[in-house]
Amino acid sequence: MTLPPQPVPNEPYKVVPIHKHRELMDQCIALINAEWPRSYTARLWSLESSKETLPTSFVLTTNVKNETIVLAHAKLSPIPADREAVFVESVVVARERRGQGIGRLLMQEVERHCFNNLDLKKIYLSTIDQEAFYAKLGYKLCSAINIFGSRPTLNKSTKKIWMFKSANSWTNNE
Fold it and tell me: Is 68 helix (H, G, I), strand (E, B) or coil?
C-alpha cells in the first residue's frame, strides 16, 4: 500500500477551531465556496455557529511571510439520533495543496479531537468522490445515517457513499 505524500518539510501547520480565530473566516469562506458555492452569508452563519462543543469548524493553517493562510477546513456536526457520534462534513483542501498530506493531517486532528476531547465513539462522513482517501485513513463503508433528526430514519442519497470510523479502530491504529 502506498502512503500519501508527506506535507512540505519544515512547513509549520496548525489545526485550530475557527471560533478562536475569527480573523480567518473570510479565507475559510473563500476556500469552501471554491468547492461548493453558497452565499457568503450562509457560510458565515455556519462558521459563526462553531463552538467548543458541537458544531465545531476546524481549519488547517500555515504561515507564509508572517501571514496565516487557511489551507483546509472540516466541520463537525452533532447527530441528534446518536449522541456518541459525530458527522464530519465540508472537508476541503485548497486545490493547489492537494496531494501533499494536508487532508490526512486535518483528519488526524479531527479524529483526535472527537475521540479524545469529546469522548465520542464513532465518526461518520459521506463522500461522492473521495472514498479511496477515507479508506486509506481507516474509514469503512456503512449504511446511510440520519444526520438531521432524532429518529433513526436513514438518509438514502444515491450519490453519496457513507463511511465511518470507530474509536476502537482508531485506538488500535494510533
Answer: strand
Rg (CA), the chain: 16
CA dist., res. 115 & res. 52, Å (int): 14
Domain hosting 154: range is: 14-169
152: domain CATH number is: 3.40.630.30
Contact 155, 145 (CB under 8 A): yes
Question: Which amino acid appears at position 163 of this protein?
Answer: M
Exposed/middle/buried for residue 143 (C-beta within 10 Å: 0-12, 13-18, 19+): exposed
Number of residues written out for the chain: 174
DSSP state of 135: H
| CA–CA separation, 52 and 59 (whole Å) | 14
Residue 103 domain-assigned (yes or no)? yes
Beta bridge partners of 68: 63
If one compares 31 and 153, the residue with the highest pLDDT of the two is: 31
Total domains in the fold of the chain: 1
pLDDT over threshold 90, residue 94: yes
Instruction: Tell if the pTM clears 0.85, that is, is over it.
Output: yes
Computed from CA positions of residues 95, 101, 104, 106, in that sequence, does the dihedral angle turn out positive or negative? negative
Q: What is the average pLDDT score of the chain?
A: 90
Does a structural domain hold residue 9? no
